[in-house]
């Protein structure tokens, strides 16, 4: 593989365009993906924010859930923001009926933990592994992590709650770094993809 990894953004729902821009600025070749054959062609994947229940159902509908689980289990680097964090959790504390997850991070998440849409906020978040000071996190109906297992590493907290976790090749944040113009979290993920491929 060249030094420019191909990273997909799961384009079933959510802020796909912003992730594509952030990944491109971090020197990745970024493309939207919706089908299993497109998933097979990428070196890593971003699961964006959106509505986690809807994304779960669309992933099943598009035949993506099992291929996603297989690639994540096989070690494909994956990064989930907000709803993407929920989809990467092994367990949801309060799942909606029929809601499934891809899994990959040994954590329990609480949906909409920081409140409703009108309680959205921005905050400076110190993230382990990212130099240059805190990143600006945009929290929109954001989840938080109730607890993590032995394999998962907490990489950021806000207000006493876990808001970023890494486990092996999987990374998840409660917040949306793609909405800020600060692409250091995406650069960290691109480096994770380069390290594997």
Labels describing this entry:
197 residues; 30% strand; 3-stranded mixed sheet; 6 helices; alpha/beta
Structure description:
The chain has helices at residues 16-25, 36-39, 52-61, 65-73, 83-88, 184-196; strands at residues 6-10, 29-33, 44-47, 78-81, 89-92, 105-110, 121-125, 135-139, 144-148, 153-158, 161-167, 170-173. Strands 2-1-3-4-12-11-10 form a seven-stranded mixed beta sheet. By secondary structure, it is of the alpha/beta class. A hairpin with a 2-residue loop joins β11 and β12. The protein contains six helices and twelve strands. The radius of gyration is 15 Å and the shape is globular.
Helix run count: 6
Largest sheet report: 7 strands, mixed
Low-confidence stretches: none
* Relative helix content: 25-40%
Number of strands: 12
Strand order of the largest sheet: 2-1-3-4-12-11-10
How far is the first residue's CA from the last residue's CA? 7 Å
SS content category = alpha/beta
Q: What order do the helices and strands follow?
A: EHEHEHHEHEEEEEEEEH
Mean pLDDT: 93
Percentage beta strand:
25-35%
- Principal-axes geometry comes out as globular
Query: For the CA atoms, what is the radius of gyration?
Result: 15 Å
